Task: inverse folding
């Protein structure tokens, strides 16, 4: 045995693949007959792309979604042969390898469409593409002024046997019901233009988790489920995972590394932004902003130790932070849960998002690679 091997890490992200499967299955039941694409970009929001992809497929997802080609090809390298769509491309990207590996390609401009058609000729394969129509987010996607030209050109290239337009898609801004409805109407206009041009895409997809759950008319042929897979609510309105029939997938935990008793007036961590107002006990937790713990949550976020919640004392440092546990008996080696399932008494990722003035999405996605992922459950 390597003497430097750590048997029991003092920091760990526990990933419950059974929760992934159950979350996908619950959403699939809600949105049926629309299909489900499971979005596993950014290493499955920090949860482990290949492992989550397999669990999501087991839960009823028919397709996978990622941001870029490297993420898609990593799934292929992991032996996953389910349909996968990649939609955000480097301007210098070459598409031949993706086409050979049967990766569907999102198209956000006429230039990308032409590049994919040329790559299909080089690869000796038809490129499967999804045309992305910008309906109001003003990010990637074909601008509305170019829709007619884009669908006409796509139809011509498809007729030449170089591409197959498998899908049309867009993304809602989730700003208000009225603006969601306006984007849906715009998208349906684009779909009608594609049909007039002679295209017959089998997949129209617009809704991510938020719209999939609350805007039924936006479900169309398929929904793209991202944050819902991971049991983090998408709404920011106090709705919990349990309210949606979902379970948080990631539990971030560490162990108490040191305990010390301090007297009133004692300062803690950089800048002494916290000082003891009474005799109290401080517990040291070996996780910090190098591990993705937001410094903005200093003095605000809570952790669970022994079933009780305690607040961070002072600033989060690069590798560690302190917790004021008061008169609670805490010992070196005790488990500390930063976030997980509130049903088990833990703070949620959304709780940490509130403490850091951000969202639960960012909290789970930013956990660094120094934190080992331990996957449990699954087939």
Result:
């Amino acid at each position: 045995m390597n003497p430097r091997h750590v048997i029991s890490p003092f920091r760990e992200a526990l990933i419950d693949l059974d929760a992934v499967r159950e979350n996908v299955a619950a959403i699939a039941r809600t949105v049926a007959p629309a299909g489900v694409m499971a979005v596993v970009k950014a290493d499955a929001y920090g949860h482990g792309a290949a492992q989550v992809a397999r669990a999501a497929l087991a839960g009823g997802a028919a397709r996978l979604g990622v941001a870029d080609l490297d993420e898609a090809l990593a799934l292929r390298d992991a032996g996953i042969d389910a349909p996968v769509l990649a939609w955000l491309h480097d301007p210098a990207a070459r598409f031949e390898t993706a086409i050979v590996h049967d990766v569907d390609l999102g198209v956000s401009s006429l230039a990308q469409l032409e590049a994919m058609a040329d790559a299909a000729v080089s690869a000796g394969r038809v490129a499967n593409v999804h045309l992305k129509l910008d309906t109001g987010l003003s990010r990637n996607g074909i601008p509305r002024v170019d829709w007619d030209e884009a669908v006409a050109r796509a139809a011509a290239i498809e007729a030449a046997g170089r591409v197959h337009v498998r899908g049309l898609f867009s993304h809602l801004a989730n700003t208000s019901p009225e603006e969601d409805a306006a984007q849906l109407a715009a998208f349906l206009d684009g779909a009608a233009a594609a049909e007039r041009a002679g295209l017959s895409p089998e997949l129209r997809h617009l809704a991510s988790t938020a719209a999939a759950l609350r805007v039924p008319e936006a479900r169309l042929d398929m929904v793209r489920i991202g944050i819902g897979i991971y049991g983090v609510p998408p709404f920011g309105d106090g709705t919990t995972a349990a309210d949606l029939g979902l379970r948080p997938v990631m539990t971030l935990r560490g162990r108490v590394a040191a305990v010390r008793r301090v007297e009133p007036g004692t300062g803690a961590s950089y800048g002494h932004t916290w000082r003891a107002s009474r005799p109290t006990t401080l517990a040291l937790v070996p996780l910090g902003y190098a591990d993705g713990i937001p410094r903005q949550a200093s003095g605000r976020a809570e952790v669970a130790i022994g079933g009780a919640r305690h607040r961070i004392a002072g600033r989060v440092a690069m590798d560690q932070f302190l917790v004021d546990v008061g008169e609670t008996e805490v010992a070196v080696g005790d488990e500390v849960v930063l976030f997980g399932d509130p049903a088990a008494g833990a703070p949620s990722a959304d709780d940490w998002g509130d403490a850091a003035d951000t969202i639960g999405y960012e909290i789970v996605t930013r956990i660094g690679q120094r934190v080992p992922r331990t996957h449990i459950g699954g087939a």
Summary: The first helix runs from residue 17 to 31.
